[in-house]
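in:
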């Protein structure tokens, strides 16, 4: 073993696998099989894990500007497939894909670590949340609030779980309450990265939207 022991739990790779799998199940339920609400319930697991991993990535990245650029780029790349799948148009301003929410959340975290006065930080969070609402991003202001919970309580697991549960159950509606099912997976995180396949995970989002679009066109 060369003095090294493998940590018990889930590394970042497996958390990403759980997130993209449950996201795929959610989108299959939304687009192809809406008569099966269990698929949407399972899909609630995905977004909290994405938020948690975003915070982990922010805390450990060596180049936060490159990280923000990468998330922003995939937000733009994913928008046309997203709009085609959910709205039947090449571009539609009704609703923006989840990468925009993650991008805005990442920029918010970047400025929150600049050690501004607490009042200014509070106002800044409100402005970012309003901006997400204005753009109508997926999960919008509540998505940013979840990211903030994971960041603010990253060293206090009990408070992290309570705050994330409160946002999902009290502020985000009935079906989103099932997002608390993501917490056991997040608590199993062992702090390790696992296999490096970051671009595979980024590309999965727009590609799976295109595949579901093709399947939907064939069926309907």
């Amino acid at each position: 073993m060369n003095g090294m022991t493998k940590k018990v739990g889930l590394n970042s790779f497996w958390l990403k696998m759980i997130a993209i799998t449950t996201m795929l199940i959610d989108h299959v339920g939304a687009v192809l099989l809406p008569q099966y609400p269990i698929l949407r319930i399972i899909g609630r697991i995905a977004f909290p894990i994405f938020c948690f991993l975003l915070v982990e990535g922010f805390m450990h990245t060596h180049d936060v500007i490159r990280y923000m650029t990468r998330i922003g780029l995939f937000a733009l790349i994913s928008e046309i497939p997203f709009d085609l799948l959910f709205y039947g148009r090449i571009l539609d301003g009704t609703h923006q894909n989840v990468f925009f929410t993650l991008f805005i959340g990442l920029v918010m975290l970047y400025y929150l670590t600049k050690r501004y006065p607490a009042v200014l930080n509070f106002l800044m969070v409100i402005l970012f949340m309003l901006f997400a609402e204005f753009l109508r991003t997926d999960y919008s202001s509540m998505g940013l609030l979840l990211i903030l919970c994971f960041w603010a309580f990253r060293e206090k697991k009990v408070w992290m779980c309570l705050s994330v549960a409160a946002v999902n159950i009290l502020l985000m509606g009935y079906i989103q309450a099932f997002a608390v099912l993501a917490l056991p997976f997040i608590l199993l995180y062992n702090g390790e990265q696992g296999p490096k396949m970051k671009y595979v995970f980024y590309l999965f989002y727009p590609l799976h939207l295109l595949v579901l679009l093709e399947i939907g066109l064939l069926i309907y």
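note: The two ends are 55 Å apart (CA to CA).
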